[in-house]
Design a protein that fits this description.
By secondary structure, the protein is an alpha/beta fold. It is built from 9 helices and 8 strands. The strands form 2 sheets. It has a 6-stranded parallel sheet with strand order 3-2-1-4-5-6, with helices on both faces. A two-stranded parallel sheet has the order 7-8. β4, α6 and β5 form a beta-alpha-beta unit. The longest helix has 13 residues. The radius of gyration is 17 Å and the shape is globular. It starts with 17 loop residues before the first helix and ends with a strand.
Length: 223
C-alpha cells in the first residue's frame, strides 16, 4: 500500500512488473530525462557520463536511444563499466588507471559536446566541464551536501562552454514515464538490467551490496 496524491501518481498497465517501476520515478527518469529532455543531443554527437550508477546508466541508455555515436562512461567499479558497455557505452574509463579528461579528449578528438556529472563530487564536476569541446554543455545532477563549492577555470567557461543544473531530468512524469515504459516494452530501454530485487528481510544485504558496487539499484519486495 502507498499514500499518494493523484498529481504524484502515474497510471501504468496492470501487466507491467510493478516491482521494477519504482525507480522510474527518480533515478531512472533523472538520467534518461537529462539526455532526452534537457541536453537533447543530436544523433552522431558525443557524450561523457561521470558515474555509472542508476542515473548514469539510465543516461547511457537514453544516449544510445537518441543515437549518440560516442558514449563514454567513467566509473571506479569494473562491473558497472561492463554493464555500461552492455547498455550502450562505446568507451569506458576507470579514472584510477588514466586521467579521465585526457582519455576523453583522446577518444573524442577535442572533447565531447555533452557531459553529465552524476556523483555530486566537486572534483568530478570539474572534470565533466574540462572534458567539453567548445560550445559543449555539462549537466550537473549529482547530489552534494548544502554549501558544497566547486572551482572552475573561468577561461574554460568563457570559450563557449555551459554548465547547467538538471533536476529529475527536466521531466513531466505523467508524460515521460509512460514514454520510458513504451521504450522498455520495445526492448530499447532495458532498465530492468540495473535493478536487483531483494526480499524486504534482506534489506541489510541490499544496502551492503549497493555500497560495495555489486548492485546498481536495489528494490525491496514485501513477501
Amino acid at each position: 500500500y502507498a499514500l499518494a496524491s493523484a498529481h504524484n501518481a502515474v497510471k501504468v498497465a496492470p501487466d507491467l512488473p510493478i516491482e521494477l517501476l519504482g525507480p522510474l520515478g527518480c533515478g531512472v527518469q533523472t538520467g534518461a530525462g537529462a539526455v532526452m529532455n534537457a541536453l537533447r543531443p543530436a544523433a552522431g554527437t558525443s557524450i561523457a557520463v561521470f558515474g555509472a550508477g542508476t542515473v548514469g546508466l539510465s543516461a547511457i541508455m537514453a544516449a544510445h536511444i537518441v543515437g549518440c555515436s560516442t558514449i563514454i562512461a567513467v566509473d571506479l567499479v569494473k562491473e558497472r563499466l561492463d554493464l555500461a558497455r552492455e547498455l550502450g557505452a562505446t568507451h569506458v574509463i576507470d579514472p584510477t588507471e588514466s586521467d579521465a579528461v585526457e582519455r576523453i579528449r583522446e577518444i573524442s578528438g577535442d572533447g565531447v559536446l555533452f557531459s553529465l556529472e552524476c556523483t555530486g563530487l566537486p572534483q568530478v564536476l570539474r572534470q565533466a566541464v574540462d572534458c567539453l569541446t567548445l560550445t559543449g554543455v555539462c549537466g550537473a545532477m549529482g547530489v552534494s551536501p548544502l554549501g558544497t563549492e566547486v572551482s572552475l577555470d573561468m577561461n574554460t567557461i568563457m570559450f563557449g562552454r555551459t554548465l547547467r543544473g538538471i533536476i529529475e531530468g527536466d521531466s513531466v512524469p505523467h508524460q515521460f514515464i509512460p514514454r520510458l515504459i513504451d521504450l522498455y516494452r520495445q526492448g530499447r530501454f532495458p532498465f530492468d538490467k540495473i535493478i536487483t530485487v531483494f526480499p524486504f528481510k534482506e534489506i541489510n544485504a541490499a544496502v551492503a551490496a549497493t555500497e560495495r558496487g555489486e548492485v546498481v539499484k536495489a528494490v525491496l519486495v514485501m513477501s
